[in-house]
Write a structure and sequence with these properties.
Helix content is about 60%, strand content about 5%. By secondary structure, the protein is mainly α. The strands form 2 sheets. Strands 1-2 form a two-stranded antiparallel sheet. Strands 3-4 form a two-stranded antiparallel sheet.
Length: about 325
Amino acid sequence: MPGAPAMSPWAGAELSALNPLRAVWLTLAAAFLLTLLLQLVPSGLLPGCALFQDLIRYGKTKEGGPSRPAACRAFDVPKRYFSHFYIISVLWNGFLLWSLTQSLFVGAPFPNWLHHLLRILGAAQFRGGELVLSAFLVLVFLWLHSLRRLFECFYVSVFSNAMIHVVQYCFGLVYYVLVGLTVLSQVPMDGRNVYVIGKNLLMQARWFHILGMMMFIWSSVHQYKCHVILGNLRKNKAGVVIHCNHRIPFGDWFEYVSSPNYLAELMIYISMAVTFGFHNLTWWLVVTYVFFSQALSAFLSHKFYKSKFVSYPKHRKAFLPFLF
């Protein structure tokens, strides 16, 4: 098409390569897939490993898992520290969003250190290809998601004295930094400046941006409802916390799966893949990681509920309605 920017063969080759970011997400997805498969194998067929089980379980599933040696307990961190993940995400991804906004609307180039970091991670210098609006919206979604989860940690969720491993805690801190950089690395760049096709950003609006936004709002609303249901299980009608015991949750997606909050998390990341236009390989690798990691947590939670409650609903699946 006359006047349309052409992507050089070099840029196309770079985009198709297994860059560092893609390698990281592919490795994480493969590791969690393997871990999930190992949990599906009958326990008597595999040798037990206390440290391995300690690293894949947290919260109630850690309590309901195999007995934990004192050496493992020495590395416990309160599960309520989940809020730290979202504090980091709101600050860091807020900074990335601000940097992208400054570049888009003021013309300010990315800071040198950020530009070099993105290059190290495999961000390509190219014109065309990914729409800037897609990455901008996904970064907005990621920031709003983190802000809502931070609000829920403080005002909705009721944390018991459950624990997570310090390795899980450190991974959670790094995760939201990495996922924000992954989004920003999809922005088409010309040197240190963002390359925008068309006269303004709104000219890039496509049908999949609307669909992705609707999916994001729908998934976020359901995740919030599920967290409210879980929080209310430990409160009286006046909203006062009266205990920290586990109860069987009912309502919303809990009628279909044991961990609808994990399912909603997956749907939120799929909504971002839709916003990228369905074709972004890097983000689909992120979605694949989220799928297997959330499936693992949901499977362990499902086993906990079934072992603790004799009257647990038989029709509920762990993660995917009617399937798994």
